[in-house]
Amino acid sequence: MNEILYDHIFGTRFVANLSGFKVSFAQRLEWFQSLNFYADKKIGFLAYLPISFPLIFFYLTHFKTVSNIKKSLSLSLVLTILVIPFIAPNDGFNNWGPRFYTVLILPYLILLKPLIVKIVASKNWKFRMNLILIITYSFLLGIVGAKIQKSKTSLVKNFRSITKELNPDIIVFTDYLNLYSIGSDYTKHISLVSYTTEKNDQLIKILSEKMKNKKIIFVDWHPLILTQETRNIMNAEKAKGGYPISHWDLNRLESSLEKNTSNFHILDKQLYRIWSGTIKGAN
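User: That's the sequence. What structure does it adopt?
Assistant: Structure tokens below.
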């Protein structure tokens, strides 16, 4: 079906991430760090679940005595942790914990049980205390991750009210975080990210020729929310890995929209500054 609809047996998800399979070995090593440890504000699998270290050590030292099933599971666990960064198309937009390793959850729990039982049964209070601290640490990281996700969910809810009010046909964003805030409304609009002023000009020209009377909005963070200084700092960090936030020439954008759209308005809505207009069409 994928071959018929999208001209590729693995479908659109694979095609969209195709460039990620061609990155350098150095990039793969950076992804190994971010997916398994920590990099670019991304909490990796082992940093999220530090109990993995004693777990792996336990099965390495007891490999000959454990069942064949646990041998297979422990080997699969280690190999998956090692291999995933070298076959993944990216390290995630906002990776937090075991997102890329969900396949390991069940075997991980199976392997973890005898270790927990052994530590709890131990008379060594240091082992017990360390176990409590490690579990508490992972639990707290889970709460932080949930709060981050909740904040992004609120972005989606807030932006949905904007799209409902303005009802645009085309939405152009400065960055992918903005794009993701559109949520399920993505399927109701033509949604794009434009990284340069030149791309904006090209887009407006093409739309003027092909999409007359369609409503378009350009969306950026409000300057009081995201100052130019903050934008520069964030982009410097994103240069190490991630998607930058565009810097549009606003005078040029406004001039182009005034020329090529009717009902042109500049609106401040919630966290955003929005340029809105209805495409006139080519003369």
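The first strand starts at residue 38 and ends at 39.
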